[in-house]
Amino acid sequence: xxxxxxxxxxxxxxxxxxxxxxxxxxxxxxxxxxxxxxxxxxxxxxxxxxxxxxxxxxxxxxxxxxxxxxxxxxxxxxxxxxxxxxxxxxxxxxxxxxxxxxxxxxxxxxxxxxxxxxxxxxxxxxxxxxxxxxxxxxxxxxxxxxxxxxxxxxxxxxxxxxxxxxxxxxxxxxxxxxxxxxxxxxxxxxxxxxxxxxxxxxxxxxxxxxxxxxxxxxxxxxxxxxxxxxxxxxxxxxxxxxxxxxxxxxxxxxxxxxxxxxxxxxx
Length: 267
Description:
The chain is built from twelve helices and no strands. The chain is mainly alpha-helical and 267 residues long.
């Protein structure tokens, strides 16, 4: 007997039916039946990063697929929530729809659209603050964010109530202070304390990025990509010589690194 799912038209109802079948206790997939919110959450984060990666590379065909994977994550969590009696996908959609209407009174209400993107961002944050009510200033900054991104968001929240260095030079001085403390910790303190000092330095660096208007997570991703490109150049050049990084010395690899930098700057 043919499965009716095969005859359903493409769209969200069919996707929901697929998800429900995967979780069906009698006919579902054993792997999917074993999953819960905690076990699926890492996949949700991974799919979000894969969306960002496709965007960064301008890979529109891949982006279509990655957005589908990310959408499926929302459907997956909503299905598990429905099974547990918490909410369903319709509740999720209704909630986000209402939020977008409420957060855009200059589009769906009587407010003027004649304001800058900066003012709209400030209004958005003010609306979020009203929704938090009497909650603490730093409450609601997701624990699951990448550490650099979370550091930036925590600092932005604190800055809105005046807890912030007024000058960039003061932030730079704090970085020098934290770097010196880390160097001292290296020789005198425990591994735990060294890790603590390293965290302080990274937090200060994220603060400087915020003051300079730089997304620290995006900046580090860019540097990771740059490092990958240049190291690939080292590997390719060494391979052409019948060698490899493991067989080369540091001076030889450093010279190839400098050559890769020069080639990029000329490009």
